[in-house]
Amino acid sequence: MVTPGDLETNIIFGHPEHCVNQIAMRCLQNGDLLAVFNEERYPYHHDSGQTLISRSKDGGRSWSAPKVVVPWTETEGNWDCGICELHDGTLIVNFTVAGFFRRGVRPEGVSWASHPSGREWGDWTWSRHTRGCLGTYVVRSGDGGANWSRPIPVNIRPLKHGGCRLGCWQLPGGELLLGLYGRIRGYEESGEYESTRSALMRSDDGGFNWEYFSTLAFDPASIIDYEEPALLRLHDGRLVCFLRTHNRPSEDARNMVVVVSDDNGYTWSAPKWTNIWGYPADAIALHDGRYLCVYGYRRPPYGTFGCLSEDGVTWDKKDEFVIRKGGVPDRPGTIDWNNPGEYQHIGYPTVAQLPDGTVVAAYHEWNDAPMPLQHCLATRFTL
Q: Which residues contact 166 (CB under 8 A, 6 or more apart)?
């Protein structure tokens, strides 16, 4: 049994009125932790917001006040951000942009939905239906994140929709790989009678130009969705990728799968099911030669879990451990932990190891305010 030691949890950021969620983090060459995450424009998880960035110089104990990297506008939102530091110190943030339109005509009848609602426009659950994917983009910074380039479009063709989860990964030769999930025939994350595939985009010029490089996993029978890839490079150079899965048409979550490449991502093995339930994942190679995968756990007891592997290819639930339990608001009689609805959306963890060996996992969960809001936290621990 794995028992993490010296657990210490600190808040990264919480907004007084908006949800903050879906964080991605990397340890920089100078030892700092740099994280990007989404600030929603509403007090609900809605994939509607803007990308923020925050830095920790003390191993995740305290974090700088967040700055906006890519702002929202009246008609656009961005989310699903990730961060990467290139060998030369350049920072790249990737994200998804969507048209996020207000209603053009105010409703005259009774709303079909009970919430969420606001004084100005009433029911705004419609915003999910007017949202349209505008593309996947990156921005670059050569001064440590003080200034950012204009958004650079990522060529994801033939995909029509490409959702991000984590930042890019740079191979020793300088190539950049960006994991996406999407569809060829449809712009949204569900429907279109086509299952979701996971794929890699590649750039050989530092993130200015991209193209579809390889398919990680796809089910032509449209039964299994493969989503939110998390790439891990083994000490021997092989690449392993964790994929979130769902059954269609129920969209019930299934166990994670892994795929393996021994040619720098040109080709991938068939998906292999693990016995680990949880999603989505992030994974790193530890200093001691082992490998660590972290993932959200959206059923009782909820929280963020981790799992260790000796070889990075073989993963087993017996090596699973808890980083933090909970995250669903503690509201007996109001929120049913067996069926909490929107409040099951916790986790989305990301992980890094500091030069001194300390591991830091960052994730989001709900607070216990009268109007619960998602906020981002970081847990330090040793293995």
A: 24, 82, 179, 229, 230, 231, 282, 350
What are φ and ψ of residue 130, in 5° steps? -90, -5
Per-residue pLDDT tens digits for 2-51: 899 999 999 999 999 999 999 999 999 999 999 999 999 888 887 889 99
**Residue 235 dihedral angles phi and psi, to the nearest 5°:** -65, -25
Secondary structure of residue 130 in the 3-state scheme: helix
pTM, to two decimals: 0.94
122 alpha-carbon distance from chain centroid: 30
Q: What residues does 200 pair with on adjacent strands? A: 179, 214
Residue from 264, 170, 161 nearest 213 by CA: 264
Residue 249 contacts by C-beta under 8 Å, 6 or more apart in sequence? none
Element (H, E) at 363: strand 359-366
**Type of residue at 25:** M
Quick one: pLDDT band at residue 315, thresholds 50, 70, 90? very high
3-class secondary structure, 310? coil
Please check whether residue 335 is in contact with residue 327, taking contact to mean a CB–CB distance below 8 angstroms: no
CA dihedral 163, 164, 168, 169 (to 10 degrees): -90
CA distance linking residue 309 with residue 312, whole number of Å: 5
- Confidence band for 185, pLDDT divided at 50, 70 and 90: confident
192: pLDDT strictly greater than 80 = no
Backbone angles phi, psi at 315, to 5 degrees: -125, 140
Mapping DSSP to helix (H, G, I), strand (E, B) and coil, where does residue 109 land? coil
Whether residue 162 contacts residue 180, with contact meaning beta carbons closer than 8 Å, is answered with: yes
**ω into residue 116 within 30 of 0, thus cis?**
yes
Looking up tokens 């509201």, which residue turns up? 331
Look up tokens 């239906």; give the residue.
129
pLDDT (tens digit per residue) in 246-298 = 998 888 999 999 999 999 999 999 999 999 999 999 999 999 999 999 999 99
- Four-residue CA torsion sign, 289, 282, 376, 85: positive
pLDDT in tens, 288-297: 999 999 999 9
How far is 299 from 302, CA to CA, in rounded Å? 5
